[in-house]
Each structure stands twice: as structure tokens, then as C-alpha cells.
What we know:
Helix content is 37%, strand content 28%. It is of the alpha+beta class. It has one domain: Anthranilate synthase (4-Layer Sandwich), CATH 3.60.120. Strand 8 and strand 9 form a beta hairpin. The longest helix has 52 residues, at 2-53.
Amino acid sequence: MHRRRKIGEENNISVQKLHSTAEKCNFAYAMKNLTEEQEATRCRDAINRLLRSECPFALFRYPQAQEVELILQTEGEPHVVVPDKKQLKGFIFAPFHETGECPTLLIRPDIHAKGWNDIDLASERISKHSPALEMPDHEENTDISGERLYERNFLSVMSEISQGNVEKIVLAHCQKETGEHHLWGREADVFLNALASQPNTMVSLVHTRQSGRWTGCTPELLLWHEGDAWSTMALAGTRTPEDGDWDRKNQLEQEVVTRYIRATLQSLGAEVEEGRITTMHAAALMHIRTDIRFRFNTPPHPLQVARALHPTPAVCGFPKEAALRHILRQEGESRRYFAGFLGTLSENGQAHLFVNLRCAQIAPHATCYHAGGGITALSQLPKEQQEIERKMNVLKRLNPTCQKC
């Protein structure tokens, strides 16, 4: 009996220990969730303060980076960048095709904060001293959200290709949303969700009175320059893991982009080194990627290199001049800052610039989701329409109210 009682007491003690351990684990888990939610709330509040201030700013995180950065201009409007100006620093926001109404902008780094603690402090500081201004509502001149219009444009592109005028044209599409996919007032949640789910992309939220409000998560590097190191990438082709291996159409798209970048850099006097072809994962989509490194004996300004490369066949077509003429004739100026480029320039010549893909323009009346796809002689309309939808859904899925993506 004594032995049995002792065993029972030991069992009771063991059960008590298990309960105690479980309670500690549950408490630790609850505290972790509480801390994460408090941190998310703090970040969300900081973003909303920045938006309410109406100051020009860019909030961003580079691929695989640990810190979010903020470049904020406390007074005045961003500078309009002129081609021959070289002493530039700040955050550059360039359109696909530069016009007087859609210029290349440079947000001056009156405040450059790194990490949420500093961003939070900056947002509190600016919200106390900056009066809220009315945000211009950038209406598009045309509604290009219909499938019939995309089909008409697709057939026009195929006609240009069949006549031998071009080898490839990137056909863009804009889809306006005013319901559950409308992002006005949800920018902070979308940005934070992108940070968590898109580690291989540059995540951005850019706000100026001239450009309007844009958010996106792009996988495509245009130019990275630090010290003597220069690099870019050829990125083309789109598929999902379920689609199987890369088909010839996607492989040809990648070859066109790589060939163009190599020739452009060599025309600037660069020695070019191409890496091996790999497959890049960006959210639910995959792309063919070739990393390209290069160097100059007499380095030009990084913006000169960026302007020479942009727009690449990945967002325009080939030959560039003929493809661009067709795009402007067919699409007008509807792309605005979609398929332009964005990123930082510093006084010491460093440049970190990305192509503005997987993005949306957010205005009070509607959100315009932008996406594009390369059209070649091997393209098929249903597959191109599916690719456009997949690219738009990458951003739509980041909206916490989205139920159908």
C-alpha cells in the first residue's frame, strides 16, 4: 500500500508538472502572439500617420533585407529629374514613359529612417508638424479593364509580329476595382502582408501628390551599384509549379531580354559577365532569371546606365523603338508608373533600382491593378489572359478582405 501510495503521489506530481508546463507554454504562446499583434499595430499606425501627413515618402524593403526603410521629404514637392542632372540622392520614382504629366520624381531624404523604431518616431514627428493636404484623385483617361479590349490589343500585337515589325511586345493590362479589392484605407495591411509573404521581392509604398499613391512587390532588379560592383538581371517568362517545365515561348522571351541587356551594356563600354540561367520564385509565380555582372573602366553615372537599360524587353519589347511606338499608340499613357523603375540613389554613386511590377495605383475612387505579359509569335490568348490574372492576384491576395483570390 505504501508503495502504491507513493507511486500515486509521483503520478500526481507528474501530472501537476505537465499542467504547469502546458500553462507556461500556452502563456508564452499567447504572449508571443500578443507581442506580434502589438508590433503589427504599431507598424500599421506609423504607416497611416505617414499617409495622413501627405508628405512625399517611400517606404520599402529590398529583397532578402531585414530592415524596412523610409525616405521622407518634409517640405515641398519632389524634384522633377532632368536627364543631365547627376548630383542626385534620395528615392527615385520613374514612369514607364516620361511625359510632362508623368515625370521622373526624386523624393529628397530629409528623413532617412531604418527599422520600425526609427520609422515610428519619424511618423510621429511629421504628423505633429505637417498639415494634411487634399490628395489629388488621379483618374485614368480611359477604362482599360475589359477583357474584350485586351483581346483586341492582343490581336493587334500578333499582327505586328506576323508582319515582321517586332519580335516581342509586352502588352499591359489595367483592372480597376471599387469593391473588396479596392485598397484605399488598407495600404498598411497590404504592405505588412507583403513583407511577410514576399521575401524575394522589393516591397514598396510610394506616395507623392504628383504620382499618386502606389504599392507593389517587384522581383525584377534593374540596377545595383556599390563601389566597383555593378549588376542587373534578365527576368522573363512566367509559370506556376503546376505548369511543368519551361516551354519554348518562355525560353525565347528570356533570350531576347538577355541579348538586349548584353548589347546595351557593351554599347556603354562595359565588360559583361553572365551567370547561369536559374528559376526564380516570387510568391506563387516562377520566372527565368539570369544574373548579369559588369564593370567599367570609366564608370558613367548610375542613372545614365538605368536610362539606357529602361525599358528592357521584359516590360516593353524588342526591338525597343518599334515596340514602344506600338505600346504608346495602343495603350496611350495608361501605364503611368507601372513598369517604370524605383529605388535609391546616393551621393557616392550607389544605386539600388528595381522595375515597378506587381503594383497598383490607389486612389480614393478606385484601385488600378497593373500587370503585363510578353507577346511573341508563340503566344496564345487564353494563356496570356491567365498570366495577367495570376500576376494581379499576387497583389490582390495581400488584401486582408479579399475572399476570391
